Amino acid sequence: MKPRPQDGAPEIIADLASEAAAMAHSLRGSFLVYEGNRDQVTADLSKQLAAFYGNAVYTLRAIVAR
Fold this sequence. Notes:
Elements: H1 9-34, H2 38-64
Helix pairs in contact: 1-2
């Protein structure tokens, strides 16, 4: 998710919330698929959180820069 210049802050925040919900759904799936394989779940969680954090920071900077 990369905000476009014409996007308004409410739309960007809604997109970010939607992305967080999708990530939570994906993580639930990871726990079911890996069935207790803690290392694999941890690796998957780390990747998803890093991507989400990067998008969140980018999005919030775009909002503040307006």
